[in-house]
Input
Amino acid sequence: MSKFSYSRINSGLDAPDLTVNIAGVCLRNPVIAASGTFGYGREYAGLLDIAGLGGICTKGLSFEPRPGNEGCRLYETPSGLLNSIGLENPGISAFLERELPALRKLGPAVIANLSGSTIEEYVKGAELLNASAIDIIELNISCPNVKAGGMAFGLDAETAAVVTRAVRKAARAKPLMVKLSPNAPDLAAVAAACAKAGADALSLVNTFKGMAVDIHKRKPVFENVTAGLSGPAIRPIALRMVWEICRNIRIPVVGMGGIATAKDALEFLLAGAAAVQVGSATFARPPAMNEIIRGIEDYMKTYGFLELGELKI
Ligand SMILES: Cc1cc2nc3c(=O)[nH]c(=O)nc-3n(C[C@H](O)[C@H](O)[C@H](O)COP(=O)(O)O)c2cc1C
Output
């Protein structure tokens, strides 16, 4: 009980400060739209208060355009969502030319999710982003839905360090956040390796590798057989992973995985996350992130917290 003063409880005098600094970039609040679930922002115009968000992560961007996967791409499961989009995107040059100017004007910090099939492709993409007006690079070494690269770079500490180091060198002007895979056998080792290789922050988790079978066609639902599981079904495991990484790592950690309410987001913030991302919940309820921001503020007022940093348990 030493972290806050009882005299502040319900006093209503002090408005809590929701701003958070991630690798030198000040976000107006700790709630960020997760990659792949918010397009490039404009798709959600009129459905929620976009300017009120802390940040927007773009869909995974690769140096070359990608058409994405054939067949079924989304499949609902109990309290979850399996996806196999396959990183469909127009390529980084087209993103910078066609999407970034409007995305910048929306207000929230712009976080570019960088994907690649080879180290060379990651580096070429990082060089383009380095010279652009984005705020943060989120290095995606955790996509489970592509045949080459993607999650393969995030499963092993040494490989994760090689790609982090290469992107760090190619994008000196931008803060670098590395997005980790919950499918890594030793996540703590991958996190430590990325931090040592120059990551300014970490984000976790990406989706868990899952599968569904069509019992009438008697074959897997997805062309790639496996797909990535997100949504409330993964939340307790994601929370445990975020908590474990926060205990061992000194750089900021952005937590995600099944967050749908302010209570969910607060669990991650209390467990040590500096900020959170919200993905699947936005599909079901576009204003969910606005409600989460209001809920965090109400909680801080109720318990007399003035800054987010005071929340950590
Ligand atoms: C349809 C869909 C597409 C996604 N695409 C990406 C992507 O391009 N890059 C990435 O790093 N994560 C991607 N993700 C993972 C999310 O950003 C997030 O890590 C994951 O869904 C867990 O959060 P949630 O449970 O709140 O959705 C995608 C998730 C979904 C559901």
Observations:
- Residues 34-37, 59-60, 81, 83, 85, 87, 113, 140, 143, 179, 206-207, 230-231, 234, 256-259, 278-281 surround flavin mononucleotide (CB under 6 Å).
